[in-house]
Amino acid sequence: MSDLLKIIKQRRSIRRFKRDAIPEAIIEKLKQALIWAPSAGNLQSRKFYFVFNQETKEWLACHHKGTRWFVAEAPLVIVGCADEKKIEKYGECGQSLFVINDVSLSIQNAMLVAADQGLGSCWVGLLDEGKVRKILKLPKHLRPIVILPIGYAKEAPEAKERSSQEAVVEVR
Ligand SMILES: Cc1cc2nc3c(=O)[nH]c(=O)nc-3n(C[C@H](O)[C@H](O)[C@H](O)COP(=O)(O)O)c2cc1C
C-alpha cells in the first residue's frame, strides 16, 4: 500500500481531543495543505479561519445545530468558508457547486496532512451558518460550510464500515 493510501485508510473522525498544543511547523503544513488543493478555474474561492481562542471555540461548539463540545476541546479549529464573490464568473453552477468543492478539497487535504502528522480531526458540517457568521464577524460574501477541530486524539475509534467497491464503482 502506498503511504498516502495508508494515511487515507487510517484517518478517522476524532471527537475527543487532548488539550496539547499543535507545533507551529505542523500548523504551517496545514496551511500549505489548504492552499495547494485544486479549485475551479484556480479561482481559489475559499477562506479559512484558524481559531485558537478558547472563548471563540466555545461559541462555535455551542452554536452547532446541537452542541458539539469536542469542538471546544481541540487546540485548533479551522472554519472553512466559501467565497461567493471570487466564484461569481461561474454563475449558478459556481455558487451551488464549485465553491463548495473548492473548500471541501482544501479541508480534505488538511485532514490527511493532520492524520499524517499524528493528529485527529472531524468534519463538522451541521453548523448554524448565521451564528458562525456572527461569531467570526464574517463579511457577507463568505459562507461558512465546515468546522474542523484538529488536535491529538483522546480516543481511537474503529474504522467505520465502507460500501464494497462493487457497490460504489461500476465499469461502463
Ligand atoms: C459533509 C460531512 C458532514 C459531516 N458533519 C458532521 C457533523 O456535523 N458532526 C459530526 O460529528 N461528524 C460529521 N461528519 C463526520 C462523519 O460522521 C464521518 O466522516 C463518517 O461517519 C465516517 O467516519 P470516519 O470519518 O471516521 O471514516 C461529517 C462528514 C462529512 C463528510
UniProtKB/TrEMBL annotation:
Residues 8-58, 66-152 form the Nitroreductase domain. Belongs to the nitroreductase family. Gene3D superfamilies: NADH Oxidase. Pfam families: Nitroreductase. Keywords: Oxidoreductase. This is Nitroreductase. InterPro entries: Nitroreductase (IPR029479), Nitroreductase-like (IPR000415). The keyword Secreted does not apply. One of its GO terms (molecular function) is oxidoreductase activity. It comes from the Bacteria. The keyword Transferase does not apply.
